[in-house]
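Q: Okay, next protein. This is Uroporphyrinogen-III synthase from Paractinoplanes ovalisporus. I've checked the sequence twice, so it should be correct. Can you predict the 3D structure?
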Amino acid sequence: MIEGVLAGFTVAVTAERRRDEMAALLARRGARVVTASAITIVPLADDDALHAATAACIGLAPDLVVATTGFGFRGWLEAAEGWGLGDQLREVLGRARIVARGPKPCGAIRAAGLTEEWAAKTESTDEILERLLAEGVAGLRIVVQEHGEPQTEFVGALRGGGAAVVEVPVYRWVLPQDLSPVRRLAEQITAGQIDAVTFTSAPAAKAFLRVAGESHPAALDRLSSGATLAACVGPVTAGPLTGRGIPVVMPERYRLGALIKTVTDELPRRSVKLRVAGSTLEMRGHAVLIDGVTHTLAPAAMAILTSLAARPGVVVSKDQLIAALPRGNDGHAVDVAVARLRTALGSGRHIETVIKRGYRLRLDEPAA
């Protein structure tokens, strides 16, 4: 028996940063966890582009600085320290108005002994852009700390408003050198082996859509239909998915812990629950709960039970059950899978054999 509110569910983690933390939180709740980082972070501490942008920022003496991520803002200051530019950078930042894209960059700003003027409540650059353009940016010298990819539209709009802008590429997102874990995840989603996929950044969502779309497009169909749950940390992360018509769930607070809680609440709510032979049977991804006790099942047995639960109390023919098996096979394979299913459930009373016709779940009130 597996303990935990997520027992019987399989949840995928696509993040690279804090991947192990997320996996541990989910496993602690009983989930089976699959990790497949859709992107990887390339630090630019030794990059000429970041060094040049830092020097340009110091020389520009900016009026306004936009800090988009705590991770990136800290990395920028650390890189500047390494080049002997730390004091100069903090000095010019201290004289500038600093705008933060949410509380995480606020924390990094304050840790550096600086103070933000205001932070976007929605944690999006759209809110920052709307407010800055409403205030007017003509003639302002603005520094934008990027977060993994060029902020082309954001920067273009500021320049279109008359601002002089320096972009600071602290790090960038790229596809992993080895894409096999992401492709394998897409294959597992296609096979119905993943109950939920978590996303913590828009670049990761974009990368997953790209790789899955090229290797196993049926995985995107399962996400679009809601058969596999897509869970995002916030609306910015969800953007690439919702843009493809994929429904998502997200927490009210855009934090990792809140995302885990959302998955923890949502998956059990989506499970099928039946009264079978005097017991409460709850269908989950790779297991079934009978009166709260978890029984982990082999793929073939789970496929049989899922098919029976889809039509509770109705006889399901062997031909239909053959088609439901992961690799097809024949009537004998169905009989073997049913026998193993009965053993796993600890009782033969839950599944009724209907001679020459097939099998059905023995409901307390069988369907007519």
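A: Here is a summary of the prediction. The chain has a mean pLDDT of 89. The CA atoms of residues 279 and 291 lie 6 Å apart.
Q: Noted. On to the next one.
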